[in-house]
Design goal:
Blueprint: E1 9-10, E2 13-14, H1 31-47, E3 54-60, E4 63-68, H2 75-95, E5 106-107, H3 112-126, E6 131-132, E7 136-138, E8 141-143, H4 152-171, H5 176-190, H6 194-197, H7 201-215, H8 224-229, H9 238-260, H10 263-278, H11 284-287
Parallel strand pairs: 5-6
Antiparallel strand pairs: 1-2, 3-4, 7-8
Helix pairs in contact: 1-2, 2-3, 4-5, 4-7, 5-7
Length: about 290
């Protein structure tokens, strides 16, 4: 894959044969593993020097996500601590021949004024370029630093799923083969981020309508929704995925925290569970809002 000559296509024109000298080729099956191995040592050294306010550092291929939590700290302290951590990460990576892109860093905060202060401090004092966003996409998931998310990326996925669904229904009508196609190209597209953010009622119902109208065309006068619910493959019904994935994600986090003996995380989950138990359940028609696409 890396030793063979390659040609670059631009429109209908092709370049001369060239060999890959640096970088990762699209579709490389070992790219993620190699990159994780390359950042293992610098991330290990970085993690030993961080302040306690940095609660997590995630690496996904070539993306880094740092999460901070400050308790009753001043804006001056927050912007200094965050900047020091970012500089430390950048330095450790550079020591091993790795570099962060100067124009791709993004920042969000639970308080907009704090986020703007961090951005201005980094740019003015250390010439670090970083963009502040009230809502952002992190690893393909809508994120807002504890504030309500706007579901911008989720709605975009839904629009893409609608386009795919319409194309699929033109090819065939009903049957188990089409059911599997819809599951692979529509249901998985919409439900990618729902285990973290959840799925809005309007989006869920629109997805179910699209799937059942394309696949459950032979209900014989019965309910197409019930026909979809009774399929042997439960994950065909978006409602099943919408209810199980958040529970699986929650249980995974609780078990992981319990295994590590993380009392802070366990306390947060217990408090969240008590809040949810005390919250009254709204009627379906009251909880459903129009889907704004």
């Amino acid at each position: 894959m890396y030793t063979a000559p390659r040609r670059i296509r631009y429109g209908n024109a092709f370049s001369k044969s060239a060999y890959t000298e640096i970088g990762v080729l699209a579709g490389c099956p070992v790219a993620m593993g190699l990159l994780l191995l390359s950042v293992l040592e610098p991330m290990d050294k970085f993690w030993k020097t961080i302040p306690r306010e940095l609660i997590s550092a995630m690496v996904y291929v070539d993306d880094f996500a740092l999460s901070f939590a400050f308790q009753k700290a001043s804006t001056t302290l927050i912007k200094c601590r965050v900047t020091v951590v970012l500089l430390a990460l950048k330095q450790q990576l550079q020591n091993h021949g790795l570099f962060l892109a100067d124009d791709k860093s993004k920042l969000t905060a639970s308080k907009a004024e704090v986020g703007q202060a961090i951005k201005e401090h980094m740019e003015r004092s250390h010439h670090l370029k970083i963009a502040y966003q009230a809502n952002m996409t992190m690893l393909g998931v809508d994120y807002a630093a504890g504030k309500p998310v706007t579901y911008g990326r989720a709605n975009q996925r839904f629009r893409e799923a609608m386009i795919k669904g319409n194309k699929i229904t033109v090819i065939a009508k009903g049957g188990w083969r089409l059911l599997n196609v819809m599951k692979a190209h529509v249901v998985s597209t919409v439900t990618y981020s729902e285990k973290v953010n959840g799925l809005r009622d309007a989006t869920l119902e629109a997805t179910r309508t699209m799937v059942r109208s394309a696949t459950s065309t032979r209900a014989g006068g019965g309910s197409a929704t019930v026909d979809m619910m009774l399929q042997s493959d439960k994950y065909v019904d978006p409602a099943y995925v919408a209810n199980t994935l958040p529970l699986i994600e929650w249980a995974t986090r609780v078990n992981f925290a319990a295994h590590r003996g993380d009392d802070t995380v366990m306390k947060k989950h217990r408090n969240a569970w008590r809040i949810m138990e005390a919250r009254p359940i709204k009627k379906y028609n009251e909880a459903t809002k129009p889907l704004n696409l």
